[in-house]
Amino acid sequence: MIKSIKIIFLLIFLFSNNLKAQEILWADKVITYSSKLIWLDDDANTSNSPEQALGKPNIHFSVYDNPGFWVVDKIHNLNENIKRTGTDEEYIKLGFEKLSDVNTILINMNRYSGLLKSISLYNDKNKKILVYQKIIDTKKIKGNFLTIHLAEVFKNTNTIELRFQKTSDIGIAVDAVGVTFLKEKKDIKLSSFINLFPDFEEIKKDNLGKKINTSSQEIAPHISLDGKMLYFIRANYKHNIGDTTKQDIWYSQFDEKNNEWQEAKNIGEPINNKFHNSMFNVFDGGNKILLNNIYEKDILSNIWLKKGLSFSEKKGNMWQFPEQIKINGFYNLSDYSEYFMSDDQNILLMTVQNQGGFGGKDIHISFKQGNTYSKPINLGKIINTASNETSPFLSKDKKTLFFATDGHLGYGNYDIFVSYRLDDTWRNWSEPINLGKGINSGQWDAYFSITEDGNLGYLCSYDNSIGESDIFKIQLSEKQKKILFNQK
């Protein structure tokens, strides 16, 4: 299985990457830097640390900024910078894993990263060579990815230093720095580094229509195993219960005669109330649902919610008061969370933020142990980033993971990705692959799921929506299903 995965990834790389002819080295070590921005709510101080400038590009700055880049300290205070460093400059010095001959430098940076002032390279004898000295106003460049062609080839390079002239109103943010040797000068596009699936460009997203989607926000679609019930979340809607600015759970039955979903209905109390209400899985033919939050009643029978998970079961036509699901060692520093539970209820995925994570909300896994679930385990840095991961969905065989994030390189502020589990530790995963422009857009795309037979996919997007986020479906061909689920 692992061998076949590697072969497929090699083919994907050859099809999707335009840079076959040369090797690009991305900086993999921080040597020194002038300063870093520290957020008080980031316990590990990782979100905008210098280490975020390492590795390949993972941010499309021109679309959306996120925590996954190096940002200097006191970005709005020039006088403090001069007092601290004795100059109006900020700098970062980075190392590479091996020596290389260089005539081209690649930098992925925020368009508002001040004034790039100079670039120096160091060789294996630690000799510093000023290779570029020209002030570039990054506000005036097209896009955010720089290809800088040098006048000559510099041998045995292993270190690079960037210096920026600081201004009082512009910050500095760097995502990736690379070096390479090109036989002919050509500008390289950031999109060249998006890890794409082949044969997905022709997929068409079909809006589920006005019986499901409104001018408000529809997200998190979940289909019962028999395909006859659709549950989803609707936010900021005039017919929500209590506070109409919050979220409610809605549902629709499939009309097989007319081959369409019926007009959606509010699931009602006690599940929906004046707070944010949301659900994540459907069981037992639509008679049991997994709910966000723990529901509690006070002595006056008022309902209150706190962070966690609950089940509610339907008896007759009535949904029962939700019962808490116990998760050992559970806590979440974020105000947001998303969950997925396998059909056998043995695997629980969640996006939560906690100490020791990689930045924002990370995907964790918990296993059923009797009547409780184990302490959540972080899926690791291949999946999780300094930004936020959201809407995890696991295939029926528990080997294929779909999720959305703005921490891996894509087209919009959130894209949908897929990754494959490589062993039973649940911490070794293949490099996430972007599902491509047929599914992802220049806007927000998330909450991808697949029906049990693998023929249909559901997702949410602001792209071509009726109002805010809408629910869409896609039809998968047999060829696409085999590629997507790594089948022979």
Describe this structure in words.
This protein has 3 helices and 31 strands. By secondary structure, the protein is mainly beta. It folds into 2 domains: 22-193, Sandwich (Jelly Rolls), CATH 2.60.120; 206-484, 5 Propeller (Tachylectin-2, Chain A), CATH 2.115.10. Strands 15, 16, 17, 18, 19, 20, 21, 22, 23 and 24 form a 10-stranded mixed β-sheet that branches. Strands 1, 2, 3, 4, 5, 6, 7 and 8 form an 8-stranded antiparallel β-sheet that branches. Strands 10, 11, 12, 13 and 14 form a 5-stranded antiparallel β-sheet that branches. The termini are close together. Mean pLDDT is 86; it is low at 1-21.
Summarize the SSE layout with pairings.
Blueprint: H1 2-16, E1 25-26, E2 29-33, E3 70-71, H2 78-85, E4 89-109, E5 115-123, E6 128-137, E7 145-165, E8 173-180, E9 206-207, E10 217-223, E11 229-235, E12 247-255, E13 260-261, E14 265-266, E15 279-283, E16 288-297, E17 303-315, E18 318-319, E19 323-327, E20 338-341, E21 347-352, E22 362-369, E23 372-373, E24 377-378, E25 389-394, E26 400-405, E27 415-420, E28 433-434, E29 445-450, E30 456-461, E31 470-475, H3 478-484
Parallel strand pairs: 19-23
Antiparallel strand pairs: 1-8, 2-4, 3-8, 4-7, 4-8, 5-6, 5-7, 9-31, 10-11, 11-12, 12-13, 12-14, 15-16, 16-17, 17-18, 17-19, 20-21, 21-22, 22-23, 22-24, 25-26, 26-27, 27-28, 29-30, 30-31
Brief account:
By secondary structure, the chain is mainly β. It has helices at 2-16, 78-85, 478-484; strands at residues 25-26, 29-33, 70-71, 89-109, 115-123, 128-137, 145-165, 173-180, 206-207, 217-223, 229-235, 247-255, 260-261, 265-266, 279-283, 288-297, 303-315, 318-319, 323-327, 338-341, 347-352, 362-369, 372-373, 377-378, 389-394, 400-405, 415-420, 433-434, 445-450, 456-461, 470-475. The protein is built from three helices and 31 strands.
